[in-house]
């Protein structure tokens, strides 16, 4: 009888173990002071409240493992970084990886021109929205975004004087449920005098898939240390939502919150 009870107890324990293995940990929460842009440093905190769980993170864009750095206190970064964090706990499947980018602000921009203007419902502060060094949240109605559902969108930036430019960063939002999609292309042109422009390689952007997550997306345009005063960007919104989307056939929206010149 005692052996039978022991056998049943072992089965129950084994069953509990298997049951736990079926559960995946929820995603950690991430908070970045300043919303993702910084001048000198960015403070990053993670939150995951489950006894016995650990958070592992990387700052170079690689996938966190149980051997990655252990999160114990607020992180401070002083250079642009791709932050990834994941929760681990014995007996459970690890959480999904949360990826967040933080970006150091770049060169001062003297002025900006938009052609055409953004949609009336999502006008923000006009062109100033893109150079105010304020990050938009995941709420596209927060006043820090401008939105377009037709293009091309032409943005001309004046740096005030000729400077060396290594990279142009364009910060966007993707939220398929709100018809906010990635642009199809971003073309860049550089000029010292505002009359003659030199093109940089056009950025071709993959179409959004149904399973792709929503969130902020940053596009990097390399300029090979060119010298220029004027930067012109031509952005093409998605002309028709894909077949998998409930609004298929309608134009997609492009939302922008900041352009950084480095």
Concise account of the structure shown:
The chain is mainly beta and 262 residues long. It has one helix and 15 strands.
Determine the fraction of residues in helical runs and give it as a percent range: under 10%
Q: Report the sheet-strand fraction.
A: 35-45%
Report the end-to-end length measured between terminal Cα atoms. 76 Å
The figure for the number of domains is 2
What is the highest CATH level, the class of the largest domain?
A: Mainly Beta
At the fourth CATH level, what is the homologous superfamily of the largest domain? Galactose-binding domain-like
Query: Which structural class is indicated by helix and strand composition?
Result: mainly beta
Low-pLDDT runs? 4-18
**How many DSSP-defined strands?**
15
As for the CATH topology of the largest domain, it is Jelly Rolls
Q: Enumerate how many helices there are, as a single number.
A: 1
Summarize the helix and strand pattern as letters: HEEEEEEEEEEEEEEE
**Average pLDDT figure:** 91
Shape: globular
What does this structure look like?
The chain is mainly beta. It folds into two domains: 19-104, Immunoglobulin-like (Sandwich), CATH 2.60.40.10; 111-261, Sandwich (Jelly Rolls), CATH 2.60.120. The protein is 8% helix and 42% strand. The chain is built from one helix and 15 strands. The chain has one helix at residues 2-21, and strands spanning 29-32, 37-38, 42-47, 54-58, 69-70, 75-77, 81-88, 98-104, 111-115, 146-148, 153-174, 185-191, 198-204, 215-236, 254-261. A hairpin with a 6-residue loop joins β12 (185-191) and β13 (198-204).
């Amino acid at each position: 009888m005692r052996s039978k009870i022991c056998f049943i107890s072992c089965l129950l324990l084994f069953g509990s173990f298997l049951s736990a293995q079926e559960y995946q940990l929820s995603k950690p929460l991430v908070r970045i002071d300043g919303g993702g842009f910084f001048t000198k440093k960015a403070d990053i905190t993670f939150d995951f409240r489950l006894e016995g769980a650990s958070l592992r993170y990387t700052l170079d864009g690689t996938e966190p493992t149980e051997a990655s750095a252990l999160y114990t206190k607020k992180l401070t970064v002083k250079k642009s970084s791709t932050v990834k964090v994941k929760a681990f706990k014995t007996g459970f499947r690890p959480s999904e990886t949360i990826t967040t980018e933080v970006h150091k602000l770049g060169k001062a921009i003297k002025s900006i021109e938009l052609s055409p203007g953004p949609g009336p419902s999502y006008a923000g502060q006009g062109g100033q929205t893109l150079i105010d060094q304020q990050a938009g949240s995941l709420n596209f109605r927060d006043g820090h975004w401008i939105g377009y559902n037709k293009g091309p969108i032409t943005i001309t930036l004046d740096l005030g004087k000729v400077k060396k430019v290594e990279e142009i960063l364009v910060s966007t939002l993707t939220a398929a449920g709100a018809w906010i999609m990635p642009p199809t292309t971003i073309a860049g042109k550089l000029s010292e005098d505002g009359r003659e422009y030199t093109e940089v390689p056009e950025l071709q952007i993959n179409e959004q898939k149904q399973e792709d997550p929503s969130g902020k997306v940053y596009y990097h345009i390399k300029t090979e240390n060119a010298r220029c005063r004027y930067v012109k960007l031509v952005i093409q919104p998605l002309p028709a939502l894909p077949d998998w989307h409930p609004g298929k056939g309608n134009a997609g929206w492009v939302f922008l919150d900041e352009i950084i010149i480095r």
